[in-house]
Amino acid sequence: MNTLITLIAIAVLVAVFLSMGITMIPQRRAQVIERLGKYHRTLEPGLNLIIPFIDRPRAITILTFKNDQPVVRTEDKIDMREVVLDFPSQSVITQDNVGVQIDGVLYYQIMDPQAAVYGTENLVLAIQTLAQTSLRSEIGTMELDKIFESRQEINARLQTVMDEAGNKWGLKVNRVEIRDIDTPQEIREAMNQQMVAERNRRATVREAEGYKEAEIQKAEGDKQAEIAKAEGQKQAAILVAQGEKEAIQNVMAALEGKADDPMAGVQYLIAQRYIEMLPELAKQGDRVFVPMEGTALLGSLGGMRDLFGAGAMSSVDSPAAPVTGSPTQGS
């Protein structure tokens, strides 16, 4: 009877011992096991066996914020998922001595449970402190306007610094984001005035550029019009000159062998042009001055009649506007 009781007691002790040695690790979790106070191994997700009273889990200290209040707790099982750490707002002085309130958020993930447990006393507090000091350092080297323009650059720099420091803690910083930048009221008003002035300046520049372009286009159009007009006048002058050339050639051909003076044809054309201008001269007033050279030219038309015949002088014999005055007088 005593033997049976002893066996039952031993079986119960073995069952209790085994139940204490069986550890279930959930997915995306890990547990650091120490044997006699020294690191032994890291338990992976699933069913694991340890030696009770000899193997003990090493807890990790976690700092979290609940309603902006810090909460410190210890956990036996290490969360291997990506964790969002929202560190509170802090006051930062920019390079141009403007005080701003900046808060941010970072995303980290524990990659090495052993380094996360033994690397620092409080992992989250270390990450938060490093993020705040790195943020102050980056913002302190930049002016306020540059901060608003370079958020992505600041985030990239912070991530690089945090990732390098996090390697010895067994974690990886995936992203660091500046969530909000709060400036004093007078700074916001000054920025609004600057923005309005900048928009007015851009509008003025756009208007001036439009006026400049319009004037350039107008000047270019006037230039092309003047060029076309000059080209037309050039062609007209060329055609007139060609016509006069052909007329002189015809007159010279008609006078060939009939006149002693080769220039008689030219004098005839000059006299004919003079006769054509007399009506226009008569319109300018009641009396017209007729120079002596004009009477000589008119006298040469009689000689031309004998050379060309009556038909060739029909244009000269046509009635002209009355001309008053004498070769030597005028009113």
From TrEMBL:
Top-level division of the source organism's lineage: Bacteria
This protein's GO CC annotations: plasma membrane; side of membrane
Chain ranges of the Band domain: 20-195
Main location: membrane
SUPFAM superfamilies: Band 7/SPFH domain
Subcellular location: Membrane
Topological type in the membrane: Single-pass membrane protein
Pfam family, any one: Band_7
Family membership noted in the UniProt record: Belongs to the band 7/mec-2 family.
Protein name as annotated: Paraslipin
Annotated organism of origin: Thioalkalivibrio halophilus
